[in-house]
């Protein structure tokens, strides 16, 4: 971690972002062709090699300052956008999901003892983490509607016993710690667990469209997991409240990272269009191609502005639930258009693994589902619009 604690915020974020961009472009991009990557993400030894390099440059976990405080959301937007210039960048710098969101939540809610045991190794990049909330659709468990949670936690003396199944748990395979959400008598409750644990069994790792996250996305069975009272995160029954503390910023940091990826995809597509010739002229001189790249620039700028606006709302101290929903919808849809056009501009080359454009396209498609699909956020926003209108009419 670089110590920019005394640097004015705007300059601090810009300076950090400049260092991160140089590191990603010069040191991380060459690893994009490393064979230690598979359908379930990069291997842990590849991740650790890149993190050792980031640590040597004092850029590991750059969003967390030496005193344990975080950059502002506005500063984080600059840094994570630079990290996202390569799909491997967030992993190398230790700002990838789900670890980045889990660090944020632990920093806000965990006790000092819990921070020492669970947060410190995460910040130092020594372990990966997982967030166990979503449940299998075939069980009719919690997904976009967390109130449908079936996983239970019952008290047994000084311990809690947890049983249930979880699905789409990113990074569960190989994680060193996890946050498990279960339904107790008091309501939804979060528990901190050290991994691996024999009571948490991976049934299978799913084959998914995206492949950028170590460990992939797993279906997990939890059978008689015993967790001491001291490992409840915060207070029993406050799990949904803590989920909102985590999810609003996490939606935004997803946007930040993938904005960087799409900026890079646009660079690659543009370089292709100004070199490739067809029908007697450069591709970019054909309106059909040039206009797609122009539309990409518009979408990228609008995504950037939405991110900056939402970051400002969160930095003001507001919860930003509605703002993060709007931003997640607008940015994920805009970036998918960008990625799609980049593939189209590059034709057959855009469909291959010769560049990262094809990978960015797949990852952005998955991003439209991460942290709630577009339609769920629109439904939530429509409910807010209705409630606000009814409140005004009742006055």
From TrEMBL:
Entry's Gene Ontology cellular component terms: cytoplasm
Coiled-coil annotated spans: none
Keyword vocabulary terms for this entry: FAD, Flavoprotein, Oxidoreductase
Cofactor entry: FAD
One record GO biological process: fatty acid beta-oxidation using acyl-CoA dehydrogenase
Any single Pfam family the record assigns to this protein: Acyl-CoA_dh_M
Protein name: Acyl-CoA dehydrogenase
Domain of life: Bacteria
Occurrences of domain Acyl-CoA dehydrogenase/oxidase C-terminal (ranges): 237-385
Organism: Paraburkholderia elongata
Domain Acyl-CoA oxidase/dehydrogenase middle, first and last residues per copy: 130-208
InterPro entries in the cross-refs: Acyl-CoA_dehydrogenase, Acyl-CoA_DH_CS, Acyl-CoA_Oxase/DH_mid-dom, Acyl-CoA_Oxase/DH_mid-dom_sf, AcylCo_DH-like_C, AcylCo_DH/oxidase_C, AcylCoA_DH/ox_N_sf, AcylCoA_DH/oxidase_NM_dom_sf
GO molecular function (one): acyl-CoA dehydrogenase activity
Keyword Oxidoreductase: yes
């Amino acid at each position: 971690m670089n110590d920019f604690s005394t640097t004015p915020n705007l300059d601090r974020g810009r300076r950090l972002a400049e260092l991160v961009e140089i590191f990603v472009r010069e040191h991380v991009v060459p690893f994009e062709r490393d064979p230690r990557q598979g359908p379930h993400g990069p291997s842990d030894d590849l991740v650790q090699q890149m993190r050792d390099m980031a640590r040597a440059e004092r850029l590991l976990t750059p969003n967390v300052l030496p005193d344990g405080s975080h950059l502002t959301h506005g500063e984080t937007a600059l840094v994570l956008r630079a990290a996202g210039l390569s799909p491997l960048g967030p992993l190398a710098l230790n700002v990838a999901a789900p670890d980045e969101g889990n660090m944020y939540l632990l920093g806000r809610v965990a006790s000092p003892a819990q921070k020492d045991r669970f947060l410190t190794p995460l910040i130092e990049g020594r372990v990966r983490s997982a967030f166990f909330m979503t449940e299998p659709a075939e069980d009719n468990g919690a997904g976009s509607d967390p109130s449908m949670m079936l996983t239970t936690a019952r008290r047994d003396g000084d311990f809690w016993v947890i049983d249930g199944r979880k699905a789409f748990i990113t990074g569960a395979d190989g994680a060193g710690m996890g946050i498990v959400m279960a339904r107790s008598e008091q309501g939804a409750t979060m528990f901190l667990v050290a991994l691996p644990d024999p009571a948490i069994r991976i049934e299978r790792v799913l084959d998914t469209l995206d492949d950028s996250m170590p460990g992939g996305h797993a279906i997990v069975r939890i059978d008689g997991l015993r967790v001491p009272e001291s490992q409840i995160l915060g207070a029993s029954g406050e799990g949904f409240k803590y989920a909102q503390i985590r999810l609003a910023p996490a939606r935004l940091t997803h946007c930040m990272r993938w904005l960087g990826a799409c900026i890079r995809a646009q660079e690659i597509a543009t370089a292709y269009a100004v070199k490739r010739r067809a029908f007697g002229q450069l591709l970019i001189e054909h309106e059909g191609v040039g206009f797609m790249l122009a539309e990409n620039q518009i979408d990228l700028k609008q995504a950037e502005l939405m991110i900056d606006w939402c970051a400002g709302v969160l930095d003001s101290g507001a919860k930003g639930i509605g703002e993060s929903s709007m931003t997640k919808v607008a940015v994920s849809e805009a970036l998918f258009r960008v990625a799609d056009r980049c593939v189209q501009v590059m034709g057959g080359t855009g469909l291959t693994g010769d560049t990262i454009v094809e990978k960015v396209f797949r990852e952005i498609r998955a991003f439209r589902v991460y942290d709630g699909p577009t339609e769920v956020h629109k439904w939530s926003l429509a409910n807010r619009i209705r409630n606000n209108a009814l409140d005004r009419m009742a006055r």
